[in-house]
Write a sequence for this structure.
């Protein structure tokens, strides 16, 4: 027994490593993936696979090129890949996903030092980049069709929010919105599938309820106050997907509970402002990107009150 | 009933089922007994015996002039065969008195058998008639220290500064460290001694209220103590939420009284004294029997141990003899820890003696989920949520890596109590406590 290990306490660790947490996020994304294949056909799956492979590849090649230890084992690139695909219309060409993935991984994530050092969510930045460079390709919506073919007929349709912004009409029923039988990006259409993933993340304690619930509630209440249809707003567009899977990104969201609340309310307000007063029909991705940028500031002003340090100068007990 | 708790904390798997139903059995002291002169916080003792002296069980063999110190006693009768430096379970070496056990356990003549009739009326009389000073003196002479692990001399706590009167005595029965069950067994097996001890402590400091605080994962102990203490109005049982580090002094004070000890201050600053439950029963024995602290409950557990057990152990026997008594190892241990897995101290050898603060010795075959490498912080905020001192461990560990003393001070690094909650929870397996320990040294030396 000459070689006893001596290392610092604690001598036990929680079961949840980054890899396990990320694996749980991937599992939570599966219902939305299944729904997208159901509504948009196999191309939805192909898009997702292409983006996942691209993201993993770009991370791997970057780390190889710069002789860095490989981090693809933490699975975060897979999530970025899925989310890049989920944020594209199914009619987009496959090279678009590859380009978006390259931007997300190389420019937004690896350039700043990899997972943990990026200051905005890579997948959303990838989406913003694609939207900026190829606006037409990124906004060509198709009617969900139920043929399992690899080629999607690009029968143009409009997203619920697009129609609302243009004509003030609400063409879809709440039920269609909830189930996902609507136009939109690959992963965002089915609120039901996303909520199943949300419940799973809560059960596995990967995230807390705060950011998604407060974000969605803020959008609902504010829309109602401003005279809109709150329920229609929260069920359409990328709100559910953004609130559950992108606003909650560890790296780019605040750390304390108070921080979560400020961040989520900020998200809600920005989203409604962009949707109602901006020229864009959709506001989720830009809201999240903007709030990502102010996250360090929120963290600075929402530190926990340290034990034994009274709020004001007075005595700390009673 | 509302559970008492604090903010932050974590929920490790408690692994107590290994030993919580195993009654305490006496561990047979070995032939050679090694008594360190340093078994407490404060000044180490100097031997008051010489090589060749005959000593009796319970006889004082080391003492110090310093106020913050506690005398040490022989745990067996026999002959002093050596006085030398010897490896210490707390790290490094300490001067030790080595005694050859004669296996007669001849008691030091001052020590009396337990002669207190345990009817509640009689106990109340006994406590009413004893002077505070006598309690404090007996506690000091018996060398009683905090047995929860910190080993702070109890007579010092019993003599709080005049301007900080104590109103509440908290008996700490939280035992929040995984694996350990020595306090749990003490509460089940000696509840009355614990209650008597708490009454004596309360008398010594002139407090008005006693709260015996127990985590709700020990319903049997809660029930037993509720029954035993029902005749004593001043004793209440506080039920704590099971959460680590519920048993940490500052957290248990917050949970029970709602008060917060000011940064850098002592519990007496908020009128509270916290003592471990097993310490309280030692107080009862010291006052009633003049019995010094020479034996205590120790949990021997961990996945490498054949028969995980709870033993009544004399101070000065080696860790090796405890594992032997527990049936040896079923697989080769890779890591030996004194105390619990969250804050315990890893050992380089099994040939270190049991001292007053040893609540458990653990042997692990696989250093459970240790990463050899740490990742970079992904700002998940889990450590911020977990820190019971409400610090920002992520920021502290980063400043520590950059040796940024100014920032470390600004973020109150010295308030960290090294509970390990942040390291435990970090998904990137960062070595938080290790970084923070370094940072503290840096700040102290700056
Ligand atoms: S070790 Fe220190 S910083 Fe980490 S959780 Fe405990 S008190 Fe907080
Ligand atoms: S738990 Fe680890 S990864 Fe998460 S914020 Fe703290 S240090 Fe960073």
């Amino acid at each position: 027994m000459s070689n006893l290990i001596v290392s610092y306490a604690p001598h036990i660790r929680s079961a949840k490593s980054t890899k396990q947490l990320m694996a749980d996020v991937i599992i939570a994304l599966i219902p939305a993936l299944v729904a997208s294949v159901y509504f948009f056909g196999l191309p939805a799956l192909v898009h997702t696979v292409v983006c996942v492979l691209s993201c993993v590849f770009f991370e791997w090649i970057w780390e190889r090129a710069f002789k860095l230890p490989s981090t693809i084992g933490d699975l975060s690139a897979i999530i970025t890949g899925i989310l890049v695909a989920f944020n594209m219309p199914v009619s987009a060409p496959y090279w678009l996903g590859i380009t978006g993935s390259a931007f997300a991984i190389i420019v937004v994530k690896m350039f700043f030092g990899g997972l943990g050092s990026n200051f905005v969510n890579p997948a959303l930045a990838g989406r913003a980049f694609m939207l900026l460079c190829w606006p037409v390709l990124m906004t060509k919506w198709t009617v969900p069709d139920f043929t399992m073919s690899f080629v999607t007929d690009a029968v143009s349709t409009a997203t619920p929010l697009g129609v609302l912004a243009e004509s003030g009409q609400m063409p879809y029923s709440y039920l269609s919105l909830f189930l996902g039988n609507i136009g939109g990006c690959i992963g965002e259409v089915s609120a039901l599938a996303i909520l199943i993933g949300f419940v799973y993340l809560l059960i596995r304690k990967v995230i807390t309820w705060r950011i998604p619930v407060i974000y969605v509630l803020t959008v609902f209440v504010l829309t109602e106050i401003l005279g809109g249809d709150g329920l229609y707003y929260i069920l359409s567009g990328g709100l559910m997907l953004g609130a559950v899977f992108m606003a909650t990104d560890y790296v780019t969201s605040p750390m304390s509970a108070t921080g979560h609340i400020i961040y989520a309310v900020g998200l809600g307000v920005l989203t409604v402002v962009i949707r109602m007063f901006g020229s864009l029909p959709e506001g989720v991705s830009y809201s999240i990107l903007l709030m990502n940028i102010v996250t360090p500031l929120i963290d600075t002003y929402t530190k926990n009150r340290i034990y034994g340090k009274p709020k004001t100068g007075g005595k700390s007990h009673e | 009933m509302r559970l008492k708790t604090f903010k932050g904390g974590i929920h490790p798997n408690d692994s107590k089922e290994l030993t919580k139903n195993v009654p305490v059995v006496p561990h047979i002291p070995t032939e050679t007994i090694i008594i360190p002169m340093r078994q407490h916080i404060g000044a180490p003792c100097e031997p008051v015996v010489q090589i060749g002296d005959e000593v009796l069980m319970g006889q004082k063999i080391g003492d110090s002039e310093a106020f913050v110190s506690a005398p040490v006693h022989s745990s067996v009768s026999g002959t002093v065969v050596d006085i030398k430096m010897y490896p210490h379970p707390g790290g490094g070496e300490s001067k030790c008195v080595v005694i050859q056990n004669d296996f007669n356990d001849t008691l030091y003549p001052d020590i009396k058998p337990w002669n207190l009739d345990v009817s509640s009326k009689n106990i109340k009389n006994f406590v009413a008639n004893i002077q505070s000073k006598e309690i404090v003196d007996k506690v000091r002479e018996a060398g009683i220290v905090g047995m929860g692990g910190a080993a702070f001399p109890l007579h010092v706590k019993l003599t709080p500064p005049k301007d900080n009167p104590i109103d509440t005595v908290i008996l700490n029965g939280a035992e929040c460290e995984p694996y350990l069950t020595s306090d749990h067994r003490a509460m089940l097996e000696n509840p009355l001694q614990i209650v008597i001890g708490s009454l004596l402590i309360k008398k010594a400091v002139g407090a008005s209220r006693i709260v015996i605080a127990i985590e709700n994962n020990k319903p049997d102990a809660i029930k037993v103590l509720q029954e035993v203490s029902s005749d004593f109005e001043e004793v209440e049982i506080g039920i704590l939420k099971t959460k680590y580090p519920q048993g940490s002094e500052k957290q248990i004070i917050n949970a029970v009284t709602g008060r917060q000890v000011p940064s850098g201050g002592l519990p007496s600053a908020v009128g509270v004294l916290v003592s471990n439950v097993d310490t309280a029963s030692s107080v009862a024995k010291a006052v009633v029997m003049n019995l010094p602290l020479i034996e205590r409950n120790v949990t021997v557990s961990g996945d490498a141990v054949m028969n995980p057990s709870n033993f009544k152990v004399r101070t000065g026997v080696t860790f090796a003899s405890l594992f032997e008594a527990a049936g040896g190892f079923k697989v080769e241990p890779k890591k030996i820890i004194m105390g619990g897995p969250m804050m315990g101290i890893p050992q380089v050898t099994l040939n270190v003696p049991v001292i007053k603060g040893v609540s458990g010795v653990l042997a692990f075959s696989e250093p459970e989920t240790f990463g050899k490498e740490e990742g970079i912080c992904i700002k998940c905020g889990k450590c911020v949520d977990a820190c019971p001192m409400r610090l920002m461990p992520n920021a502290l560990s980063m400043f520590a890596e950059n040796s940024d003393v100014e920032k470390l001070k600004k973020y109150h690094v010295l308030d960290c109590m090294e509970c390990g909650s942040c390291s435990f929870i970090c998904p990137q397996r960062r070595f938080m406590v290790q970084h923070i320990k370094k940072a503290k040294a840096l700040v102290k030396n700056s």
Remarks:
- Chain B touches chain A through 72 residues (CB under 8 Å).
- The CA atoms of residues 67 and 107 of chain B lie 27 Å apart.
- The mean pLDDT of chain B is 91.
